[in-house]
Amino acid sequence: MNLLNFYFCYLFSIQILILTVYSFTPVGSEEVTGDPDEKRDIADLITSRGFDYEVHYVTTQDSYILGVYRIINPFVSENEREKLRPVVIQHGFLSSGSTFLINSPDGFASPCDPADQLLASNDYNDTHTNNLGFLLANRCYDVWLANSRGNHYSRNHTTLNPDKDKEFWNFSFDEMIAYDTPNLIDYVLNVTKFESLGWIGHSQGTLIMFGLLSEKPAYSLKVKPFIALAPVTYVGNILLALRFAAAIPGALWTLRKAGGELGDSSTIIKTTSQFVCGRWQPKSCDNLVYPLEGYTPSMMNQSRVNVFKSQQKLTGTSVWNLVHFGQNVNSRSFAKFDFGTIENKIRYNGPYPPKYKISQINSTQVAILYGKADRLGDPKDLQKLVKELKVPLFKDYEIPNPKWDHLDFIYAEDLYKTVHTVVLDVLRESQIELEKQRSGQIAKI
Predict the structure, then answer these.
(1) pLDDT tens digits for 383-417?
(2) Gyration radius from the chain CA atoms
(3) Can 414 be counted among the known catalytic residues?
(4) What is the CATH number of domain 3-444?
(5) 405 catalytic, yes or no?
(6) Residues forming beta bridges with residue 68, ordered by sequence position
């Protein structure tokens, strides 16, 4: 194999890695639909459904600026808004907060009462929608849509320019765990004056919370409940194609040295997409790629394919973040970024990166929802996570559909019935539990 062929094989493997890790765009029959959601950003999506919004800019301790969108239900008065329990919804890898607003064209703002939070999901039938953000806002939750550093909405810094300063992109999910997540939680609690909030994460959005709770167990008092959709920490049993790509000698080292941005317009995406799919008809490429992408085509909301694809332009992360996942695939561990022996000694006081200690998590309000057919959050890796937890799960829920995959939590047509009803019930049960604890404390006084 000559050098050029090796290079293209290498690019193909990396493209597989990019296409399949955690939250990428689905393939499907792409038709001209003229759906206005295709051209809408988060603000436009929110207002198109009759809601108002606030944009909050959270500056992290390491000077990144995160764009966070708060959905405002216009039917709730200013005084009543203060009673709404805050819930943060956190997207996965190569995604954004819009992920939770685009599965269906409905979800229009409607009147609600804070007491609606205590209703079982099947007792409230007029706000059914596949769009989790709008669903919760119509159930009188104070919804905050997070955006991880590096995507379109959080591509900012107090001193670094992401278009000029390569240093901006020197981060992975370690920094999201150490800075983004706790800083966002503290910001929301400070604004709302609540003692705790709900956290709903998908994929990487669960990983960063598991990491935070293992590093800073005190945050379990601030996060009630933590709902993990398609939870991910360990990735040693991930799809074979990804293991193959991560194990190519020198691949991760080369990417780490290259660094920079990983997004829809970045060079690595353009080059590898052209190599992998540029020479085939779109349908042929779709047939090649979709088995690797972590969703079930027959269950996907096909009417929204163009919307799903258009939103990918507003995502982004760092190449280092991709590398970090690859490192953990190879090491079969949930560990911090590996900088190499010399730099590891400087940063970690040892030759190897330290591992996140799941056993340190003390939260009793962790709920996991997962699919048996998940190829990106493999059931064997999930069981390893559960085994290491020393506290009981608040809810352990396997999706009844045996074909349910990783991205079906985002793209499936029957998302409300299959997932969101369970999410609503977990939030309700958590609220009841908190009310009991509060009543017990008052009784003691």
Answers:
(1) 999 999 999 999 999 999 999 999 999 999 999 99
(2) 21
(3) no
(4) 3.40.50.1820
(5) no
(6) 56
